[in-house]
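User: quick one
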Amino acid sequence: MTLSTARLQAILTEITDIARASESRGKVADYIPELACIDPAQFAIALARPGKPTLVAGDASVPFSIQSVSKVFMLALALGKLGDRLWSRVGREPSGQAFDSLFLLEPERGRPRNPFINAGAIVTTDAVLEGSSPREALGSLLRFIRAAANDDDIHMNERVAQSEIATGHRNFALAHYLLSHGNLANTPDLTLGTYFHQCAVEMTPMQLANAGLFLVGGKDAPRLVSAQRIRRINALMMTCGHYDGSGDYAYRVGLPGKSGVGGGILSIVPGIASVAVWSPGLNHYGNSKLGTEAMERFAKMTGWSVFGPTRAAR
Amino acid sequence: MTLSTARLQAILTEITDIARASESRGKVADYIPELACIDPAQFAIALARPGKPTLVAGDASVPFSIQSVSKVFMLALALGKLGDRLWSRVGREPSGQAFDSLFLLEPERGRPRNPFINAGAIVTTDAVLEGSSPREALGSLLRFIRAAANDDDIHMNERVAQSEIATGHRNFALAHYLLSHGNLANTPDLTLGTYFHQCAVEMTPMQLANAGLFLVGGKDAPRLVSAQRIRRINALMMTCGHYDGSGDYAYRVGLPGKSGVGGGILSIVPGIASVAVWSPGLNHYGNSKLGTEAMERFAKMTGWSVFGPTRAAR
Amino acid sequence: MTLSTARLQAILTEITDIARASESRGKVADYIPELACIDPAQFAIALARPGKPTLVAGDASVPFSIQSVSKVFMLALALGKLGDRLWSRVGREPSGQAFDSLFLLEPERGRPRNPFINAGAIVTTDAVLEGSSPREALGSLLRFIRAAANDDDIHMNERVAQSEIATGHRNFALAHYLLSHGNLANTPDLTLGTYFHQCAVEMTPMQLANAGLFLVGGKDAPRLVSAQRIRRINALMMTCGHYDGSGDYAYRVGLPGKSGVGGGILSIVPGIASVAVWSPGLNHYGNSKLGTEAMERFAKMTGWSVFGPTRAAR
Amino acid sequence: MTLSTARLQAILTEITDIARASESRGKVADYIPELACIDPAQFAIALARPGKPTLVAGDASVPFSIQSVSKVFMLALALGKLGDRLWSRVGREPSGQAFDSLFLLEPERGRPRNPFINAGAIVTTDAVLEGSSPREALGSLLRFIRAAANDDDIHMNERVAQSEIATGHRNFALAHYLLSHGNLANTPDLTLGTYFHQCAVEMTPMQLANAGLFLVGGKDAPRLVSAQRIRRINALMMTCGHYDGSGDYAYRVGLPGKSGVGGGILSIVPGIASVAVWSPGLNHYGNSKLGTEAMERFAKMTGWSVFGPTRAAR
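Assistant: Done. Structure below.
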């Protein structure tokens, strides 16, 4: 049973109504000064399908800082540039620790567990800088995202980037520690300058849903990476995309997803759709609180899950 | 594109031929004396589909000790008995540690990370013993497995159970430690006696594939648990089923799976099939070496993955 | 300046008066049921000097459970029996973890950090059982303590031992874990039966001070171990005798010491005296709260410290 | 029995002869480029006593980089400036981890275990910078050391400091991490610039022995800190002065000591003497290999130990 566009739109609207009525919205990230002042009352959900119009509900035209969701695009870029060489520098296992943890880096000798925790994303960014200047690397990233979203109006917010450069002490600690293990090829300043700009990409929920289409696959989807790479990136999003809350997201939502402290979550329904949800308040894992709840409701209402037979029944 | 039975059979045969020719077979688990003497040259793969004949290749009629694969059935039983109450005692996150680790139990105050590491499976077993004797609990488990496999000729190997009772010191350490945190309701002897018998279930690869059908779902599959629970168990298998190698399995195979130190792996293709593979030699995570390689090849040859659009194209 | 007996007696009395007036007495250990009912209002201090009468103040004739203070005597016995062979099984470094922690045992492969944390003391006890029955080993221990104290009226409290056997789950976890690493030669039941009886030795504060004289050294002290061994045991008491509070005790008191959850502390002033203090309430390290404060006051009032020149000025 | 000057000189000479004949000299620290080229064949020992001539043997007039031995002087300075306020920012417990570890900083929320591991020394340096410029703080440190040694010819090696600034990535990681927890008041560049200059102090073994006299105490010793502070600094040297080898040093040598990766060790015999030993090759803890062995021999030959009654017998 394929869900009709009308039914899907009704689902998005109902989810938005419920989210807007929620009284427990989580806490906006305040460690990045530029993000601390975002209005926590905002909520949006957007659904993109290959070859069909994108559906939205809520504040879907408000640009927000995608933050760590950008790690998905940077990973795609890194794999395109380096292929499996990337895995000599970063692992593919869930870390079971907070997004900015450096606890495991010592016993594991400077090799981050996966590309979606901060340490691993810094290594990925550093790898993309191989033979490229920060300007070139960030240009490649923006071009990739714009091509994925089929939308040239996507930019980086320089004030957010500068805000993080000024206050991202833990990321500097990670970069210097990686360097001490020989797992950083550039200076911390150079790599983190690039990393913070990558995190400062701003998109509307609608743009983000569209940008996720390259991970949906199928004949009408944008062909930016191979089918095998789609599967692998989705696998990493499933096991590592929500830090130490990844298991819970898989259990409750059942779709690959990547969150960011800006309150955005990008989830993929392989072969069917890309979903972006945004609400700035975070739960204790640092993932969007209402966004996670909305995705759980979305999965339940659509019956879409990679772990069940529901699609076979469509 | 649906794969024909003939094509699937050809895939299983080719995988078996390649596995049999492999010269690097891993190391048979030697910490359970009764398992140490298994012939490492054995290999089998079996594929069960709802409403269709089960396909096999290799030593698919040889019973082997399913060991930790039994944790999937025990979890299903525990969720049936306790529902979400189970999660007050055990988490749903990958642990990033070895299967028998107790490292994280101290900082996390005796609450195991998930039901598939030993500590978590001991808690799950202990929970199933609520209001039941070991005999009753093990009887329920066997009935569940036999019903799932539609096969009454499935038994526990008493010698294997006794061998583990005599040598499973680390599991005793885990049980006593859980008890010290109040997360064991029965004595370590009672709970572990049950736990070791559960691990001592023997099945042929063909039986195991059949027993996995209840997690495939769809209208022709056995209805032992709800569609929601199917999705949730598969989610846990995906994020936690291979211990600290779960991320790698998701990346390489892309299907929910649960391994056991007996060399068995059960993987689910939601809506389509249940696959059992068996080869006694283990890799350094304690998962079947050739079994993992075979499943990676299987996923590639069939194009089956929960993370890609291939099913939509069938 | 040697302190006169009268001056020392006055110091003990003043310390006792202050302790008795204290309103913050810590919390009696409640995880051993037999110890949970001890009256926390009790306090005593006793000072033994080679060749001179022992001085006491407070409840110095009340027998109490010396618990982990017994590890000092067991270590002396183990070194006498095994010499440096003991160090192949246990280390000599402070652990920085709680007395009953098993956190470090996993990364350090079953070799406890030192003989004064529970894990290390279990190994030490196990080592003393080499070629001896528990009865013989415990007989040797009692003989050693009685000889040290020059007092035959020192016994084990069977009810305390049984209470710990029934409830010491964490110690059972430690013993089974040690066994899983091959660092236990006997069954957990046998070694822990011995270990718990050793912890159940009861002494009065006066007896304990006397029993410590063998670590004071000098020509009038009991010669139970060599001068080199005295120094080494005192070194271990200094760096490891108060678990993760050892550094603080060294800083505040400046004397080697060993605490027990029964509320006793034995401290050594090398060449001069042995001091026992007892008060059942514990601080958050599991060391006697008033006992630690009393020893800090004692060190200040006597000027005795291994870290200062005060003795040179006597 | 007081050891005569002639006997002490004979001991120093014998120890030097044995050290020079040793074939296993450890490995010179190579992570600081300026130190990597030091000749490992060098060895010296120097003994300073209050009011008596300093005795030396070996290369006792060769200046070397005292590195972490400087932490003793900086701690004295910090305690003089801040008193017990310092302890709100750094602990007093052995860490059980390597000198440059950041493992424990995460669970312990940015409060280093003690002032002698790198993280703790960085905090101590940062504290001394309160209300002072780096130039002033380093001036105070040099004045303190020169006064202690009664020798104005003690300097910092600017090339060593610059070498560490250029390569001390792990220390930068520590500083940024401390900053992220609010436990750094200055920028990492400012604090580490000061820290690295402090480590770059050069002294001859003879000067270092003299500089240690302020920790010996007694009426003829320099009065730079109070008797209580002497005891406390010595206590910290005993429990934390050799990182995760502190317990072993206490056991084998029995004297408070502080090592540096330049191969120097300063040990104190309270009330009697200050001993400096230097040999560039390090053991696996990062402490001077021959230096540690020499101190063990020295303690044995002199009978000097804080843990034994030997001084009472002098």
